[in-house]
Specification:
The chain has 322 residues and is α+β, with helices and mostly antiparallel strands. The chain has 8 helices and 17 strands. Helix 3 packs antiparallel against helix 4.
């Protein structure tokens, strides 16, 4: 029988990228996908698909527990920050969940708390504060939700940063090249490897990227300091700005697989596959073999001839890609 893995967030590029990356493992995994929207672009990638409540809904974890039992799920791979946090807290009632411990997930969910913990642990990070504590010392600022995602609700250099509520944070904004660094920490707490990409964003999603090695001297100490400061497990992602002086300044961390998962897996850093191998299949992880490479994303249509949108929730509905 095929092993069953549940991947969340199939409406977004992270969940879809995870499924494409792991589909052929173990002779072909059985994939159960979930999303908060019944009409999901990733439905066709799954063997079974189920809409679920948002992770912040009290019904979310009970729904996931029942779903895992009925589908015979052996491993859950969350693809959004809130799901990562809530599933980590409910691990005792669920199959294996590929996440860091709950306290670590809680820190990563709150961007301001991440900055505060990193400051205590000596991890480099962009200066951040509550709006009411902002004293004007940052020349350029970005105001963003502490638990936001996908670049929603962001304000650049607002006239009165201090007027925002405590649900927001004020962060020093640096000019330069944005890089994204994925790193994987094995279950024993040791760092397995990393890959860094320079990237461009469109509507909060990576639209183009390329592997770079030039920042490794600055990036590797940052990764090691994060792993030393917190019990991170599995895949993690740190976003940074490289200033004109070559200084690498991290400004955000995602404690999960991220938007370039499917791309970096093709360029020698298959962390989605490592996740399944380590948490489900067993065996020794192959070392990273990162190569130089680049990727550009494009839009694809999933066409369902003779169907209505209600039919999209069935992964087996006749469709083709165009």
């Amino acid at each position: 029988m095929r092993r069953t893995v549940l991947v969340t967030g199939m409406g977004g590029n992270v969940g879809q990228g995870i499924v494409r990356s792991i589909r052929d493992l173990a002779g072909g995994l059985r994939i159960v996908g979930t999303s908060t929207d019944a009409i999901s672009a990733g439905t066709h990638l799954c063997d079974r698909f189920h809409p679920v409540p948002p992770a912040v809904d009290p019904a979310y974890c009970p729904t996931m527990k029942a779903l895992c039992a009925s589908e015979g799920v052996e491993l859950i791979i969350p693809s959004t920050d809130h799901e990562t946090y809530h599933l980590s807290r409910a691990q005792a009632e669920l199959p294996t969940v590929a996440v860091s411990p709950p306290d670590t997930c809680a820190i990563f969910l709150d961007k301001l708390r991440t900055a505060e913990v990193f400051a205590i642990g000596g991890v480099p990070f962009a200066r951040s504060t509550l709006p009411r504590d902002y004293d004007g010392s940052f020349a350029k600022v970005i105001v963003k939700p502490r638990q936001g995602r996908g670049s929603r609700g962001i304000y650049l250099d607002p006239v009165h940063p201090e007027a925002f509520s405590d649900e927001y944070m004020v962060q020093e904004r640096h000019a330069g090249v944005e890089i994204t660094t994925a790193f994987y920490v094995r279950k024993d707490g040791s760092l397995h490897g990393h890959v860094t990409m320079e990237r461009s964003l469109t509507a909060g999603m990576t639209s183009s990227c390329e592997v770079t090695f030039v920042h490794d001297r600055a990036v590797v100490p940052v990764i090691r300091s994060i792993v030393a400061a917190l019990p991170v497990r599995g895949s993690c992602n740190v976003q940074s700005i490289v200033t004109a002086r070559g200084e690498v300044i991290p400004f955000e961390v995602n404690g999960r697989l991220s938007g370039t998962t499917s791309i970096r897996g093709q360029l020698g850093f298959p962390d989605a596959r490592w996740t399944v191998q380590e948490y489900l299949l067993g065996g020794t992880l192959a070392p990273p073999a990162v190569i130089r490479g680049a990727a550009v994303r494009m839009a694809v249509d999933i066409v369902y001839p003779g169907a209505t949108l209600n039919d999209v929730a069935d992964p087996h509905s006749q469709h083709f890609l165009f």
